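Researcher: I'm comparing several assemblies side by side, and this is the next one on my list. It has 546 residues spread over two chains. Same procedure as the others: predict the full complex and return the structure.
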Amino acid sequence: MSVVLRAPRGFGADVEGEVVLSRDTFSIRYDMDRETGVISRRGHALEGQSLAGKIVYFPAVQGGVAAGWAFLALAHRGVAPAGVLFGRTNPVMIQGLVLAGIPVMHRLSPDPFTVLRSGERVRMSPARGVVERLSRP
Amino acid sequence: MRAGELGEPTRRALEQQIAVGEFFDADGFVPVTSVHMMGDMEVMGDAGFAVIDSLVADGARFVVPVTTNARCVDFERAAALRQDPGLVARETALVARLRALGAMPVDTCINYQTLYQPQFGEHLAWGDTGTVIWANSVAGARTNYEAGPAAVAAGLTGVTPAYGYHLAPQRVGSLRFEVRCPVGDLTDWGALGGIVGRLTLDYWKVPVLVGLRRSPTGDELKHFGTALASYGSCAMFHMVGVTPEARDEAEALGGRPPTASHVIDGPALDAFYRTFPEDRAEVDVVVFSGPQLSVLEIRRIAELLEGRRVHDGTALIVTTSFGNREQAARLGYVETIEAAGGHVLSGVCWYIMEPAKMAAAFGWRNVLTNSAKLANIIGGYRLHPILRRTAVCVEAAVTGRLPAEARWR
């Protein structure tokens, strides 16, 4: 187990899961099927990928306030991500994740693509501001 | 409040606000004069409805004016648009609960044009990105993006965490965009917002526009701002010589050099349109929405449609606020559009009206619009977006096909 990413203090409890890295930005309304939690936008780096139970990283976010309610809806359907990591985010994402009780961190360093691969198991600890690798796939 | 002396709902709302405030290193709280919330079943889902329902059951009441954004059902015209009766019923129940909390269900995304013009320096908790970017940029008021639950929380507590656009340092521009081409139709202004948004793509950056050949109208600023917010996740812009915190370039940039400079010329504007090529010449539905239309915009559509008929194989939809529809009806514009076979909807915005289901019900595959914001959004619903200038959109609605000069493949 080794610390691979550092960040300012985030929100939520420690959580472990399989990490999914996206090179594309994220908008709940534009990119995701909010019924299933699957990335639905044509051409998105994660098109067809379910985020359910995953710890997902997006470099940045796009668009609107739909995210405020949408994470709670995903959580009620059992298809929410276990945790969310952002490079840069906006208030709406955080408001929505706080409502849904989903852990979140932002301003990660270094670029997760330089130290992690999708499929690896990680633990994110928002209170300590670290992401640790638990195992390689 | 945290101790719960104002009741459990207010205590929970404050806990959420504290969590968000801590995440963004907020400088305490600031009182707000007005809240504008996204609250419709399309965006909330059953889980969000349950939150509102429990607030009503707990006897919660908003302590500041709370207005609502455009919703997903036009109750008078839902059947004609083949909207799901179940959705209509849930939306009706939601509106009743929002009223019980003391909200004002005005159902508009252009509250700043039609209902309430915030003043310079006024602190708000507004949702809907288009309203936020207008409030910050054009009015000089101060608000972050406040999503539905955050707006509800601010309505209950009367305060919001003081971070981001509530504080002067965040409001300083850093990216410079020099516009070197004429910007004409409303769609051009949306496209300009889209270009700047794609290059900014950061809630925390404020783009500064210089070089515009004339001051834009209110509707032009509306299309520019909503597109910039949609494409760039931006909450504020400066237009030098136009917006109140940008009397000159030095003020807009805080006296510092920009971190990046871009030039936007005619070819760049054309290139933006070309990111929305048609899938085929036939047009299934023409939508004027996102944001709701002003009375002046409705008048223009009516003038272009006067004495003509929308093609049998094509639908035409306009969305606006209740008040604007009423005015447009008194002025005869609604009659003109309806006589041509178009729909004039109120209290809604098209992209939240379950467009994928509506498209399936009517067999629509592509959507022609003059709204750069709408063109950006509907790809997520697997509908093919085509962005063209307003007159081209109306022409295509009448002939059922994109005019030859507006086809690119």
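Model: For your comparison table: The longest strand of chain B covers residues 285-293.
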